[in-house]
Amino acid sequence: MGYSIIYNHFYDLFAGCDIDHGLIENPKGMSQAHFHDDYEIYFLVSGERKYFLSSQISTLKPNYILIIKPNEPHQVTVNMNVPYERYVLYVSPKIMSLLLKEHPSLSDFNNSTLLMLSDSVFKKATELLDEMKYEIKSKDTYAPDMIKTLLAEILILIFRNRILPDDSINKTDIRIQSAINYIIENYNEPISINDCASLCNLSPTHFSKVFHKITALTFKEFLNKIRIEKACELLENTSNTVSEVCQAVGYSSESYFCTSFKQLKNCTPVYYRKSHREKTNKSEQIDS
Q1: Are the C-beta atoms of residues 152 and 98 closer than 8 Å to each other?
Q2: Using alpha carbons only, how large is the chain's radius of gyration in Å?
């Protein structure tokens, strides 16, 4: 099983934006999480989708909008066997950064994940997306300015009229989310699959199957992922030794910690810390 992979774009960004619109008649789940180097704003027109994003399970319904940040692992985790229609708006970080500076009313954009709109407002948003798609295809002299104007109009429309989404999710999702939260809160303690299965009132075998179905990770892979993320924070922000970091994030074996770290980060903890410090020093020199 894998962890997160970078998704190679099947499209070419024009003027910092692109749109993929489609009706998917035979939906399938993703076998593993992936991430993009762009913002991905997902508009669900019809049907239902389930996402696992930043350790949070989300069920998307019509008129829902999901905002996925650059390099944020995510995936559709379940084959709902129901056709669905969606728009996916991709925006480069450079364009988004410029847009947010120009429009202070969008200051909450980067703190938002799941939104919903009324039928009429959502319809207006998709009409603007269709206009933007036309401009992307035209690629004439005026298109880049039109695209940026439409992007601003879409985002302002969304945030001006956003509604808190319905938080209702099924009992299985609630149980698995409680296990995920437990792992995140207690990663530095010994945690077994039996502990989490008991928390969810499921047998270890059933828990293992459901957990993998929703997250596309085994229990062990997810626990390692959380622990290594916390280890990275310690390596970046403290002078703790590798052995101390290992113990602080819940590993009893330093060799296993280093093996897991290299598997997820493609480098050793020592190299990770060195690389981070070099990047920080370069950034400070540029700023000064």
Answers
A1: no
A2: 21
Residue 66 bridge partners (DSSP): 42, 114
Cα 230 to chain centroid distance, Å, stands at: 17
Q: How far is CA 130 from CA 94, 147, 161, 199, 223, in A?
A: 23, 11, 19, 46, 42
Strand-pairing partners, residue 19, are 89
Q: Which backbone phi and psi does 274 adopt, to 5 degrees?
A: -60, -45
Show the tokens assigned to 109: 């954009």
DSSP 8-state symbol, 55: T
Residue-wise DSSP of 73-88:
-EEE-----S-EEEEE
What pLDDT score does 173 carry?
84
As a whole number of angstroms, the longest Cα–Cα distance in the chain is 62
Our CA dihedral for 207, 213, 215, 218, rounded to 10 degrees, sits at: 60
pLDDT at position 104 is: 94
Structure confidence by residue, pLDDT tens digits, 194-229: 999 999 999 999 999 989 888 878 999 999 999 999
CA distance 51 to 58: 5
The CA distance from 161 to 149, in Å, is: 18
Above pLDDT 70, what percent of the chain?
89
Domains of the chain with bracketed CATH: 5-161 (2.60.120.280), 171-284 (1.10.10.60)
Instruction: Report whether 150 contacts 143 (CB < 8 A).
Output: no
CA angle 106, 44, 102 (to 5 degrees): 15
What backbone phi and psi angles, to 5 degrees, belong to 51? Answer: -115, 145
Q: How far apart are CA 216 and CA 212, in angstroms?
A: 5
